[in-house]
Amino acid sequence: MLIVRCKDCNKEITSTNKTQVCGCQNMMTVKGDSVTALDLSRVVMVNSTKKEQKSNVLTSQDLAFQEARRQRKVRKLDFEIR
Ligand SMILES: [Zn+2]
């Protein structure tokens, strides 16, 4: 299960077996373990089952900071598409 957020419209989507779309022009689409979008760099992975991220102990501001820092280091986000 994934929780991803679209930076364009700030909508957060928790993945399910059903296809979900954020609804803005970035067209972030979440289904199962896969995330697609027109621009994946504008999609934030909030939580992922196999990442070490301890997102539940951090505030959203901390998370935003971490995301910003991560993106400065690594441009490409690590998405798994199956
Ligand atoms: Zn969006």
What does it look like?
It is a single chain. The protein is of the alpha+beta class. The protein contains one helix and six strands. It has one helix at 60-73, and strands at residues 2-6, 12-14, 20-21, 29-31, 34-36, 43-48. Strands 2-1-6 form a three-stranded antiparallel beta sheet, with no helix packed on it. A three-stranded antiparallel beta sheet has the order 3-4-5, with no helix packed on it. A hairpin with a 7-residue loop joins β3 and β4. The model has no long low-confidence stretch (mean pLDDT 82). The chain binds zinc ion (ZN). Zinc ion binds next to loops.
In short:
With 82 residues, the protein is of the alpha+beta class. It has one helix and six strands; from the N terminus they run E-E-E-E-E-E-H. A hairpin with a 2-residue loop joins strand 4 (29-31) and strand 5.
Strand and helix layout:
Layout: E1 2-6, E2 12-14, E3 20-21, E4 29-31, E5 34-36, E6 43-48, H1 60-73
Antiparallel strand pairs: 1-2, 1-6, 3-4, 4-5
Jot down its keywords.
1 helix, 82 residues, binds zinc ion, 6 strands
Q: Give the low-confidence spans.
A: none
- Mean pLDDT, to the nearest integer, reads 82
- Write down the overall geometry: globular
The main pleated sheet reads as:
3 strands, antiparallel
Oligomer: single chain
Bound molecules: zinc ion
The total count of strands amounts to 6
